[in-house]
Structure formats: C-alpha cells, structure tokens
Amino acid sequence: MSINLSLLPPAEKNKIELDKQASYFVWQLKQAKAGPELLFNEAEKIRDPDERVFFEQAIQKYKRIMGVA
Fold first, then answer.
1. Structure confidence by residue, pLDDT tens digits, 55-67
2. How confident is the model at residue 5, as a pLDDT?
3. Distance from C-alpha of 40 to C-alpha of 61, rounded to nearest angstrom
4. Which contacts of 56-61 are long-range, i.e. CB under 8 A and separated by 24 or more positions?
5. Domain housing 58
6. Is 0.85 surpassed by the pTM of this model?
7. Does residue 3 belong to any structural domain of this protein?
C-alpha cells in the first residue's frame, strides 16, 4: 500500500521534514562537516514548542542510530 505524502495535513508534512532535517544534521555531525552548534542553532530556529521537542527527539533518535555521541 502506498501513501501519497502530499495528501497529509500540513502539520504531518512538517514533522516529516523536521525528521529528514534531523537525520541530515546528525549525518553532518558524524562526517565532521559541522559541529554540535549546528544542532543547537537549528533547534533555536523552530518557534513551535511541540515541533522543537519533536525535532530534538529526532536528533536523539538519529544519534543513536548513527552512533554519534
């Protein structure tokens, strides 16, 4: 069964985007292309508290998956 992501509500689309960004930022950290300040700076840009918590949880998830301390 396929799901058309464009049909999702805007809030769900944004969560998917935040999850993708978290993955990319942790990958950059692992590859030494960015420092830990990148994660802090990007989290600070998120105004909605619920979205910020979701982003920070995604960061922790990808740190575990990628083995980044």
1. 999 999 999 999 9
2. 87
3. 16
4. 58/18, 58/19, 58/22, 58/23, 59/22, 59/25, 59/26, 61/22
5. 9-66
6. yes
7. no
